[in-house]
């Protein structure tokens, strides 16, 4: 597998440095660049040496939804680096297939609309048939479908948001649990929630409601898996830079790079770490929860937000909206 050739279509292309061969921690430099909009930033991460890193998910089979871009794609690449076989699921056919092809022979792609429960059931069956079992479900697909405030939220906007950000997760949990029971082997279910589930202002009303309900789903799944060894946990990302942000605020693809640069600077001031989140930050959290390193953790909420929840700050959705308005004003003046 040539991870250095990973390209995502509109997703970031990740070019990694070469890890050292030592078993101790090795710093790895990477550059993340979106070939469509040109936005580029560097990230630095630590990884274990080659002798250990490939073993964290050795021989495990994982499904990742929302895997054609952003956090899902970064997680797919990370899982594969650690020895897993991965089924990437996404509604984006071309981007998903391209990503799977470039990730190598241990990756597969299935086009799935996660709001269709039958397609999710078929996805789980496909993974089990293709690789012999299922060990990890990363139920990650989601989006802010309607940013309306409560007083203006239409029923259809709420329903559409809940279908993608709650109903789909519930169905994915159901079919994964059934597969774990059929195969007589426990698994790990990881679900993407959001810090919007804990504090108002990080996203729209409907999205925040859905993500709060996801936390209840995660705990209920953990309870119902008592004594089986199956674990259920949530990741609560903070403000992570992904390709979905510019379209949410009406920014054209040609302007996405400059817009994301401004968003990154604004978000950095809202975290204790001093930078916006990266897809790799979420991927590393998912790796931990998927691996046996977290074997005594279930029913937990893992907040990955650079410390943003540790202090009071302006509402992020308002902050990005302000940046979008200023950006539009600059365009008019130019």
Automatic annotation (TrEMBL):
<keyword id="KW-0753">Steroid metabolism</keyword>
<feature type="region of interest" description="Disordered">
    <location>
        <begin position="1"/>
        <end position="22"/>
    </location>
</feature>
<feature type="compositionally biased region" description="Basic residues">
    <location>
        <begin position="1"/>
        <end position="10"/>
    </location>
</feature>
<dbReference type="InterPro" id="IPR020904">
    <property type="entry name" value="Sc_DH/Rdtase_CS"/>
</dbReference>
<dbReference type="InterPro" id="IPR002347">
    <property type="entry name" value="SDR_fam"/>
</dbReference>
<keyword id="KW-0560">Oxidoreductase</keyword>
<dbReference type="GO" id="GO:0016491">
    <property type="term" value="F:oxidoreductase activity"/>
</dbReference>
<protein>
    <submittedName>
        <fullName>SDR family oxidoreductase</fullName>
    </submittedName>
</protein>
<dbReference type="GO" id="GO:0008202">
    <property type="term" value="P:steroid metabolic process"/>
</dbReference>
<dbReference type="InterPro" id="IPR036291">
    <property type="entry name" value="NAD(P)-bd_dom_sf"/>
</dbReference>
<comment type="similarity">
    <text>Belongs to the short-chain dehydrogenases/reductases (SDR) family.</text>
</comment>
<keyword id="KW-0443">Lipid metabolism</keyword>
<dbReference type="Pfam" id="PF13561">
    <property type="entry name" value="adh_short_C2"/>
</dbReference>
<keyword id="KW-0520">NAD</keyword>
